[in-house]
């Protein structure tokens, strides 16, 4: 039973809610072994019942580790006000939904587990990917007495308050496509203006709806362009080095060049991305909202303000600079509260974050695949002997957290092995310090 508010002493702050966590005891060496605890921080989605993260599960036997997965407050079964709908109902109930409360929850859960299982001297390593990776790194900064170290995979902790370039995300998407195929890149760039030109015709939206086999007639050009924007970004962010969806889609676009026009080429890319030729494609944005889409929209409009825009002339996309004034006004209109774009840098570290990490932080691995657009906001160079950047040229978003497969490229195996060797070094030093302190 988790406390609603860790930072206030009003009577309602002492209200509790059930917070869900999952433990895998299979490889644990037991309380007396002082074996480590691998704790994975859930992010902006419910934890599945059969939660397994490959990097933790593959390495738990080597460390005799206890593996713990903690669900983020407000998602899944960890809802403070009885249900997700009630928890998100108004500005008051949503007010307890933030990262500081979340990592305080995690501290409470981990101390509860250590006490319950009598594992006082088991070192804790925290793991997370993307937003969860940010949480893991922030947890090590705020609770170094609880977590010995952190692995933050694909964590864009610099994408706040103007630290990283605002156009960085879409610059890397552009770079990924351009490096895959110059002609594919040029076709996509040209397509936006072709779409705009067709849309201006008397029956333009009907033509576009027919060409892209939309399930419903397009109500506005923006919906089609937003679908394509999301598709290209998703392809770059999650590109699997074996399946190489990026190349598959570009091959489809390039391969249709002699058979059809620009719109036809783009549609062939849509078909290749979906892996099958569907009877129609949902491009109107009317899909059922999920806890992730609803919850993350609130988190973005409160504290996780990533000022991501498109302002490069050679971009794969049409220019669309980030407008903070518009963003603040839209969020205020939707939620009745103003976003706090400077709070993350105030609470966790600001423009001089790298210098500050060098001066006072330790035992954090920042892992990034350089084909991941979010790497533009990641720590890509080691800051000290224990604030270590591990990067891969062809890696994508959170790829290192997956299960080992025979088809994995050598560089991915090397990345994972490097990360676990660093973690072993931390644990070995901890045990050596423990032995000295108990003599």
UniProtKB/TrEMBL annotation:
InterPro entries: AB_hydrolase_fold, Peptidase_S28, Ser_carbopepase_S28_SKS
MF term (GO), any: dipeptidyl-peptidase activity
Pfam families: Peptidase_S28
Entry keyword set: Glycoprotein, Hydrolase, Protease, Signal
Entry's Gene Ontology BP terms: proteolysis
Entries under Gene3D superfamilies matching the protein: alpha/beta hydrolase, Serine carboxypeptidase S28, SKS domain
Similarity remark: Belongs to the peptidase S28 family.
Protein's UniProt name: Lysosomal Pro-X carboxypeptidase
